Amino acid sequence: MNMNNPSPKFKQYSISNNIRSFLFTALLLLLFSAVNADMQTVPASQLTPSSKHIRVSELITHILTTYHYKKTDLNDKLSALIYKRYLESLDQNKAYFLKTDIEKFNHYQYKIDDAIIKADLNPAFAIFKRYRQRVDERIKYALNALNADFNFDLDETYRFDRREDDWAPTKFDLDEFWRKRVKNDVLHLKLTEKDEAEIKKMLQARYNRILTSTLQLDSNDVFQSFINAYTTAIEPHTTYFSPRTSENFDISMRLSLEGIGAVLRGKNDYTQVVKVIAGGPADLSKELKADDKIIGVGQDQAGEIVDVIGWRLDDVVDLIRGPKGTTIRLEVLPKDTGPDGPAKIVTLMRDKIKLEESKASSSIIDIPDSKTRIGVIDIPTFYIDFAAQAAGKKDYTSTSRDVRKLIKSMLKENISGLIIDLRGNGGGSLSEALKLTGLFIDKGPIVQTKDASGRVDINYDPESGISYPGPLAVLVDRNSASASEIFAGAIQDYRRGIIIGETTFGKGTVQNVVNLNRFTKKSDADHGRLKTTIAQFFRVSGGSNQYKGVVPDIIFPTAEDASDQGERGYENALPWDQVNPVRYHATSAPIDRFNVAKIKHEKRIKRHTLFQLLMDDLVLKREASDKKEISLLESKRKIEREKMLAAKKNIQNAMRAEKGLPPLTDTEEDTTTTDTNDTNTTDEIEDEPIDVLLNETANILNDLISPSNNKTIDARTVGIKTTNRNNDL
């Protein structure tokens, strides 16, 4: 097999966003237009692997076993994991297959490796055909169950999350699950005050859509599901892009971004928001948040809201995407309301994503009763305009250039300290991570890179000198990844500043996209691309950010158990590793002062009303999102719903009271509650959200600047000045 030396080069890295690495297909489908051919039901007889699928399987197998960073043999252990992941990709919630089906499939468990080596894809297609049969049976049962006379005075529960459960042992057990599922669907709509006829019509359409979308899956869909079960069984950031997805990838590289700007994934029959893209309509609206669930989609201002529960992700995306300037209405279940609502309608106008909204921006926090002024630079991503740079333009946009200008501007405002806010920053350009770090250290190594051959390269500060020598804090959260972790890790190792927030994502790897068409004849059909992990990053101190992430010097109590967050939540993520440390000269910062600041921080937040309200709000959201069962007793359901809404409103009113606002009426919704990620607080605080965590970070930095001065920022008197980015960029 002539592979034409597909081994990637490692000198120019662009570090993938951590979420995009795992869910990139979903983002691309949402942001960009693609061919939307009318789908027809596919006869079961046509569900067979093609010669192209066999060829792609051979190419991927060769690349993964030869060039992937993680040396993985195709053996029985990997075979069992591929088998498990493939079943999960088809029936994650164990709602269709019977245990007898799984027992019948189990002979494949340790033979899939042999089948892949032989390019035999028949096991994948055999499993899918049985899945298709079971979906047909379940939907017919559900449609028939709609005619039942449900007793909502019967105290029983519906376990809607079965991911950790065993497969249903008998058809009777699966019937019982689906009976409760249909009953729950009816009750949910009944509680939203829909009448019986409307409920039946909506659910018939929902269930029929599940069946139709399954019957429309063709051999390409089956192949992609199976081959990605193989690639992600090796590690979570290795993914096969089908020809359609590859086309969208090209569009993304040209920055032709139109849509609403959100990363989505399918989860338990729901379309869940994973991340809102900075600069997009969803981000600018401030109404769509991570972990919200989209349950309905309507076109224009008056178009019917189409129920999308149970739809395939790409079918939902087809409804959401559309031309710039058109209106879309999303029916959304907010994260903190739980599976029973109430839902809200979010109206957005599709638009070209304003990339300038993703650029670094600055603000200044004045500490009350103090001369201390804390500068803040918010960096949503590590960006660079490669095209403008290559064209020799002197004013090309990049993170480091923009931050340098912002620092210069704020120094004129006599700031006493600086916060670099990297919350939600999933990565970007490695070169920009190096240059940004170089603004705060004089010279030296910043990160080490180890490739698949074991060779370690050292990446240095590309320019000597320091742009900002003063007190520094770096604010991170669980979604700070890749380039963000390189920057935060280097600042921590050099003891150049204090790291505050939550343990970061833990993505210390880099991926390269290999075009599979380079290994085939020009006349052959498009074979797609493979995104594969080729290297790992290591800190100058020798340890990796992979898996463990960057652990802050002061961890906010908003950080729940981090054992299942980020890379740590992936079953087969690459483990933490280390290489030899390199020589670097850390500053002589008094680290013991960090402990003193931590003690002051812990005392302060115990008496800080807004901080405690934020914690109460987070507890409420976690309780709602952690539920796996729900009551089917109507009276109990109403009580639970009213209790949840009352608790939410109590927190909102307490927050409003802290800001000097009147309490909400029974029919009002709060649009000015505390937002832990919004830094656009102004003097008119009544109309803007308060970023409690950013304010507390400023307090901590103030403690380090002025140990004897322990002032608390009052959210009602904080003055934030936002620089004019048009003058800076």
Describe this structure in words.
The structure is a single chain. The protein is an alpha+beta fold and 729 residues long. Among the domains are: 71-234, no CATH class; 258-352, Pdz3 Domain (Roll), CATH 2.30.42. The chain is built from 21 helices and 24 strands. The chain has a 7-stranded mixed β-sheet, with helices on both faces. Strands 5, 6, 7, 8, 9 and 10 form a 6-stranded antiparallel β-sheet that branches. Strands 3, 16, 17, 20 and 21 form a 5-stranded antiparallel β-sheet that branches. The longest helix has 25 residues, at 634-658. The chain starts with 13 loop residues before the first strand and ends with a helix. 43% of the residues are buried.
Span of the ends, CA to CA: 50 Å
- Name the overall outline: globular
Number of H/I helices? 21
- The chain-level structural class is alpha+beta
List unreliable stretches of 5+ residues. Answer: 1-38, 248-257, 671-688, 708-729
Would you tell me the overall average pLDDT? Answer: 83
In angstroms, what is the radius of gyration? 27 Å
In total, the number of strands is 24
**Strand order of the main beta sheet, please?**
22-19-18-14-13-12-24
Major beta-sheet overview: 7 strands, mixed
State the helicity in percent bands.
25-40%
How much beta, percentage-wise?
15-25%
